[in-house]
Amino acid sequence: MIEIITDYLIYDTFGLTKDSALGHSVEFFIYDSIKILLLLVVVTYLMSLIRYYLPIEKIRNFLVSKKFYGFDYFLAAFFGAITPFCSCSSIPLFIGFLGAKIPLGVTLAFLITSPLVNEVALVLLAGAFGWKITIMYATSGILIGMIGGYTLEKLRLEKYVQNFIWQTNITPHTAKTTQLTPQKIFTLISQETFTIISKVLPYLMAGIALGAVIHGYVPEGYFEKYITKENIFAVPLAVVIGIPLYSNASGIIPIIQALVAKGIPLGTALAFMMATVGLSLPEALILKKVMRWQLLASFFGVVGLGIIVLGYLFNAILP
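Given the sequence above, the corresponding structure tokens read:
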């Protein structure tokens, strides 16, 4: 249905030709914009509804009071996966968790996973590459969070957290103390949905626009000359290039889709995506306020190495 509407607008109304680079670019932009916006609204609303009933304070207190023998890393990473934050906006929660005396490694598991995996990114990935790739990506993102958090915990880097963080006192508050009417709940959830979408939308449209340019104007197989599975430096190079950039997963996926269509191996493309959304210079600048350079360098090093390993693994097992 969307494709029919797109074709009518581009080729019948605007008079563009299917063989032109401009026609391909405009078709990619309009089709993906409509499809992704529809998915974005539906999925974000549903997840906002789920989060409304999710007892975040109880989850935090549960993590503080219990011994899980490693399972707490999974819980923290999973909690990161269901929260819709980019690498920078997840930092306030990271600070709050440390202030609540949650162990550093468990807190880092949340910080690593939160920007890598979220419901919007998973739906967009499924639309672009199918559910098999999406499940592999989500599982990998959670594993990076768990293993990265555990590794950093074992390095005993707590002394490199700025002192004022440990002196923060978090006073739990009881959420939803009053019974709200269904209309009020609908209003609150709609407001949260609108807020999330308004933050994501600029990155999303910029990503679709860049993806459209690549789709229409970059020749087929252009990148294959330089970035192949046989090039052992392709994955580390993709990660190094991705780190200085800054985007959320929703904005980078249309670009990844276009790059893969032009010949870049999927594992290399996903490593680039993970580096862009999970590690970024703006994140480093903010984290420098709460971490000393030793912890910051260890954080970027461990996560970056995990992303590189996953990139090679994806390239080895995916066609």
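The chain has one domain: 1-317. Try to locate this feature in the token string yourself.
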